[in-house]
Amino acid sequence: MAVGVFIAADDQTSVVTVLPLMIPDLGITADEFYRSSWIINGYLLGYLVALPVMGRVADVYGTGRIYAASMLLFTVGSALVAAAPGLEFLVAARSLQAVGGGAVVPVAMAIVVRELPPRARAPGLGAIAAASEAGALVGPLWGGAIADWLDWRAVFWLNLPLAAPLAVAAWRLAAHERRAGGIDWWGAAILGAALALLTVALADDPLNPRPLTVTLALLAATAAGAAAFARRELTTAMPLVRPAMLAERPVLAAEAATFLTGGALITVLIGVPLFVNLVLAEGPLAGGITLLRLTAAVPVGALCGGWLAARVDLRAIASVGMLLAAAGVGTLAAWDEGLREPLRSAPQLVAGLGFGLVLAPLASAVLARVGEGERATAAAWLTLARIAGMLVGAAVLASTGLGRFYARAGSVEFGSPGFEELVRAAQVDTFREIFLAAAVVLLAAAALCAALGPPPRDREALPEEEGRRWWFTA
Fold first, then answer.
1. Torsions phi, psi of 352, nearest 5?
2. Looking at the predicted structure, is the pLDDT value of residue 399 above 50?
3. What are the C-alpha distances in Å from 279 to residues 9, 269, 398?
4. Does residue 231 register a pLDDT over 60?
5. What is the DSSP string of 198-253?
6. pTM reported for the whole predicted model
7. Does residue 425 contact residue 419 with C-beta atoms inside 8 Å?
8. Distance between CA atoms of 279 and 431, rounded to whole angstroms?
9. How far is 366 from 214, CA to CA, in rounded Å?
10. Helix or strand or coil: residue 84?
11. Burial of 205 from C-beta contacts in 10 A (0-12 / 13-18 / 19+)
12. What are phi and psi of 417, to 5 degrees?
């Protein structure tokens, strides 16, 4: 399961380094540059729409089979991306690829909870989270290396020999699974439309933005779609997601904390390289290497969080992780033009460790409260909360953060003495506000972790001796 998660996560970020090669090859001119953003937005749209639907599909048709089908969809989508003759075809292929890749993480989490004994579940979830974060970390290096040696299309062709064997193996191992329940396809269509509208509303051309009235209309339509979906789920006999499950206090707290964490994380992922590029006047490579300090610490934190969650109260681990992340991100506000190495590295290592620590406890808090037939659905909605938080966080950063900078820079008279230093000071002040705001968001998430509650007594729990016997037999 973890290998599949690693491959899907690797593909999500490898496109970042090959994007400059894709744009001229697909015939995108300089005045059409914004269209290339849909290479990423198309994947994000497919990912968001697929998550809640595929989670329920996995619970109904069997997690192993849907894991195999997801890897197969990911493989087919990769082949279509590699063979894409133009941008429109490639965006559609990326969306199909995302339907498969988006389902892999929550379905893998559900399989881990089903297959492992209770004492081993939190470390298993930590391993899945670590595989996801490690794949995202390796992706840009993998994509850049393959594109240098071969070309950008080879990055996607290589997904076939990597992913197809996993799909075959998972299908064979899942042969005993049986179908149980039904799927609210109308509800899935309504939710998918609402998420698509939200993605389009938040993805705008920063150089030539649409009228504000259009964005507000898209957001209003999103809210109407969300309300229609909620009403249908409360009345249908076979809901896509059981409302009572999401309304349970610990689950709701975990979802909200995950949403806030996603918003804070994307702020750091965007803010750190930008600070290095704009304030320190260092190149893109230096920005990526600087951010590597944080991203490398996240999978380490995820493994530690899984190990600790099996031994310590989930609330304590999640709260400590959030506080560490808040402390690290808050310390980034001390960055300025004279940034030295200790201050460049230490806060990011602390923040990355904190971001990783919270993953397994939050997942465990949710999955421990649902039955066998709802685990993939619950895991999908938890992942959806994180992605939605990142989407909203990026939009707020682009609008509010840039707006604050332009307001400051606009007050500096062009050509005045020390013009460049004043503009750089405006940049530093803006980044300081951005990082402090992200730290406050993480403190709010830490407060929510107190509402996770003690883990319920697991009816499937095994005595310690029986658990050891299970491992020996396996």
1. -65, -40
2. yes
3. 30, 16, 17
4. yes
5. HHHHH---SSSPPPHHHHHHHHHHHHHHHHHHHHHHHH-SS-SS-HHHHHSHHHHH
6. 0.77
7. no
8. 10
9. 37
10. coil
11. exposed
12. -60, 135
